[in-house]
Design goal:
By secondary structure, the chain is of the alpha+beta class. It has 16 helices and 21 strands. The strands form 5 sheets. Strands 1, 4, 5, 6, 8, 9, 10, 11 and 12 form a 9-stranded mixed β-sheet that branches. A 6-stranded antiparallel β-sheet has the order 15-17-16-19-14-18. A two-stranded antiparallel ribbon has the order 2-3. The radius of gyration is 23 Å and the shape is globular. The relative contact order is 0.18. The model has no long low-confidence stretch (mean pLDDT 92).
Length: 440
């Protein structure tokens, strides 16, 4: 069973409530170098100095982005820039946002500490593969700061909205914190500290499984840190290393939005476009549509509309090549036959996913890209318009437009112990860094 508990939350002092919007950032892994600089300049107490500090050419083992983050954290705690609640509480966290199609939505859930367990042992389930580089970086930061700055986002099964009904009255009250991020999303938090309310939440979630939506690298970093501390000091009385901060929301929440992770191919070795198009014809029916490069928003809507017709059936992709004023719509000629020709070691739960078909039949078979090429030369964006603009401008060579992965597909793969390819999902919006911290 999953183990969840309240904690003594750390947050910005109320003295900073008027500038809170200038203090938060998205999670570290979606912050570009340009955005990092922007957040640094936004406010001297912006959380960027903790979540993604700058690297310097003269960094040493004793003076680097991780040690500087730890020093800044200690300074802010001593100066009461950041303050700690003296009673264990949960936090209700809400995001009021506009999705790319213009619809206004709200997503809310609970922030608490979840016990870190090995996959397959506890009730925490992954759905996506991870890579060593980000985990090494995050482990260095965790060692230095002994803190979680951004909640991992996870989902649980609650079709009757039991937890939502429990905190509905809280959402009607004035929030403890409110901030607006650079995308216009409003982030709000409320505290749940009464013992009976806390216990009701603990009891309800006790038998739930938590499916990680966003933050796989942070969870596996927490797992590595737990193992490290247990090896170094197996008799430690302090148990803080065994827990990690999570934002938990219902899989059935109407505000849950998953965007596609479009692929942006910057360059690749020995790429022969004519040969690639011939290979794509092996498996795909290819349609061509001319477009006006002076109205890319209209092109974006057109591609999204055509792909949306196949959101449930899958096997369809948009493709735009730099230098061509047209987009290609790729559709599997014979879905059952084509899928059966994929690698024999691909699990059944993954074989029909668009991200799998794209990787195997488009990138590998069509363009001859191995996994190293795909990771080294591939970028990602959830925005169709962004993908088109970057391709037309020549910032990338080819963009591949996908439909989003569905929650039911994620859940099926996770429950069967299978991990989807990297960047299979893009949950929107992102939980902010800076509103609720776990410092231990």
């Amino acid at each position: 069973m999953a183990e969840i508990k309240p904690f003594e939350m750390v947050h910005y002092s109320s003295d900073y409530s008027d500038v809170l919007s200038s203090l938060i950032t998205p999670p570290y892994d979606v912050i570009s170098p340009k955005e990092q600089e922007f957040f640094y300049n936004l406010h001297p107490c912006n959380i960027i100095r903790l979540v993604l500090g700058k690297q310097h050419g003269n960094d040493t083992t004793s003076d680097n982005r991780y040690t500087r983050a730890a020093g800044t954290l200690n300074k802010w705690m001593l100066e009461k820039t950041l303050v700690r609640r003296q009673k264990p509480c949960f936090a209700i966290y809400q995001m009021d946002f506009e999705e790319p199609q213009g619809v206004r939505r709200r997503l809310d859930g609970l922030i608490g500490l979840v016990k870190v367990e090995d996959y397959g042992v506890g009730k925490v389930l992954p759905h996506e593969k991870t890579y060593s580089g980000p985990k090494k970086d995050q482990l260095e930061l965790l060692r230095a700061c002994k803190a979680n700055f951004t909640p991992i986002q996870a989902m649980f099964d609650d079709p009757d909205d039991v937890l939502g009904k429990l905190h509905s009255s809280i959402l009607a009250s004035k929030p403890d914190q409110e901030a607006v991020d650079s995308n216009g999303t409003i982030h709000r938090t409320w505290s749940v500290c009464k013992q009976d309310s806390v216990q009701t939440i603990v009891n309800f979630l006790r038998d739930k499984s938590f499916l990680i939506a966003d933050g796989h690298h942070r969870y596996e970093t927490a797992l590595a840190y737990r193992r490290e501390i247990e090896t170094q000091n197996p008799s430690s009385v302090d148990q803080s290393h065994k827990y990690v901060m999570m934002f938990l929301t219902s899989m059935s929440h109407p505000g849950l939005v998953i965007l596609p992770a479009h692929r942006l191919l910057k360059e690749a070795r020995n790429l022969d476009q004519k040969v690639s198009m011939a290979r794509l014809n092996d498996n795909f029916q290819i349609q061509e549509f001319d477009f006006n490069d002076r109205d890319l928003e209209s092109v974006s809507r057109q591609i999204s509309s055509k792909l949306g017709q196949y959101a449930e059936t899958g096997g369809h992709f948009g493709m735009i090549i730099n230098g061509e004023k047209k987009f290609y719509l790729l559709g599997l000629k014979h879905p059952l036959t084509s899928v059966s020709n994929l690698k024999q070691d691909i699990p059944e739960a993954l074989v029909k996913l668009d991200v799998t078909i794209l990787r195997e039949l488009v990138l590998a078979h069509g363009f001859g890209l191995d996994e190293e090429d795909s990771e080294t030369h591939m970028g990602y964006t959830p925005s169709t318009l962004d993908a088109i603009e970057k391709t037309v401008k020549g910032e990338v060579r080819i963009s591949f437009i996908l439909n989003p992965t569905r929650v039911d597909q994620m859940r099926k793969a996770a429950e069967l112990g299978q991990k989807m390819p990297h960047k299979s999902t893009y949950f929107y919006p992102k939980v902010s860094s800076g509103l609720v911290l776990n410092v231990f």
